[in-house]
Amino acid sequence: MIPTEVTSHLQGTIAEQREAIVDLCAQLVAAPSVNPDGDTREVADVVSRALADRGIHSRQERCVPTMPSVLAEIDSGRPGPHLVLNVHLDTMPPGDESAWSQPVWELTRVDGRLYGLGMGNMKGAVAAMVTAAALLAAEREKWCGRITFTAVSDEVVFGDNGAAYLLREHPDLLGDALICGEGPGFRRLALGEKGVLWVEVNAEGPAGHSSAVQRGCSASARIAEAVSRIDALNGMTGSLPVELAVMASADPDPGLVLSSNVGTVAAGTFVGQIATRAKAEVDLRLPPGITTRDAFALVEEAVAGIESVRIRELKGWDANWTAPEAPLTRAWDVASRAVIDAPPTYAIRLPASDASRWRREGVQALCYGPQPTLSAGIDDYAEEDEVLRCAALYTMTALEYLRAP
């Protein structure tokens, strides 16, 4: 358990740094890093300077010149676990900028909220993680092992030029555990993430003039029937794994149900002709308990009996998670009770994050950040106090997980 005086000292230190943390958020927002095209050079320099100002040496690595990632090592000088602190530097596009009530490219502080593109996903978490890294460096006599700070590029499109590149080049970055600043929203702790299955659906039909069409025979009619049946898979649940039984509920969390989104549909070449070919692409997100193999079988069963319809897997991977009884999860529970006087509320994230790359290699990984709702959008923001709480939770979890004897 973390001594009360340690909790009080760290929370007091973070409170004293409030203005510095908000200023760092402002610098991060003012450094555009929209993906695509994913240019993170400016924001990476902001992070490198922030670490240097706090006494931490860092380096930048990249496989694409415009997509640097920032790495820093903090070593206690004593043997122990290797903990990775992970955030990403790129942001989603702002959407319709005219719909924003606050400036997109500068931080605005209003009623306890910090507005600006990326504050929810995830520049607020970047500021909190930089703060945590600095606090842990200053308190290294209280923990054992080592910490690697990673602020990566190319995450929001799940690209290959950020975390994937670093793990290929430096397998040791897998470490023993990872804390990711990717929040699932609503102050919940994400134990894992849904799996993904992308499928292509193809249909064919006879050629001819549109005046000669028969009901349900054109490729467009067949694809319409197919995607309607696939859409009906929404809301299905699987058998919840035993180690996640604590998340069972009569009203399942969205992270525990299957979603099936028909993303694209294309058919025909001219309105006056029967469509001879049609294609749809579907994105299924899979909860724990439904594997990619299970989901593909569900899609096959759904379209069975529709003449000429064929499906093909484009890509996919199963859901992954860290158990509530894992050492890192227990450490977070201790930190949560110390910082907010309550245990964490567990969730399964809906979209993927880089944390899934670590879990797929057997590394325990948790996601928590100041993202206030399910996803960032118009008027992106983070609550100012929550950014500070994240800094405290990251720091306290690391101290508990790496606790010195």
Description:
The protein is 31% helix and 22% strand. It has 405 residues and is of the alpha/beta class. The strands form 4 sheets. Strands 1-2-6-3-7-15 form a 6-stranded mixed sheet. A 4-stranded antiparallel sheet has the order 10-11-9-12, with helices on one face. A 3-stranded antiparallel sheet has the order 4-5-16. A hairpin with a 7-residue loop joins strand 1 and strand 2 (69-75). This is M20 family peptidase. GO terms for molecular function: hydrolase activity; metal ion binding.
Short summary:
It holds the Pfam family Peptidase_M20. Keywords: Hydrolase, Metal-binding. The chain is an alpha/beta fold.
Q: Secondary-structure map with pairings?
A:
Layout: H1 4-16, H2 18-29, H3 41-53, E1 59-61, E2 69-75, E3 82-88, E4 108-110, E5 113-115, H4 119-138, E6 146-152, H5 163-169, E7 177-180, E8 189-193, E9 195-204, H6 219-231, E10 259-267, E11 277-286, H7 292-303, E12 310-317, E13 320-321, H8 327-339, E14 346-349, H9 355-359, E15 364-367, E16 381-383, H10 384-401
Helix pairs in contact: 1-10, 2-3, 2-4, 4-10, 6-7, 8-10
Protein name: M20 family peptidase
Organism: Mycolicibacterium obuense
Pfam families: M20_dimer, Peptidase_M20
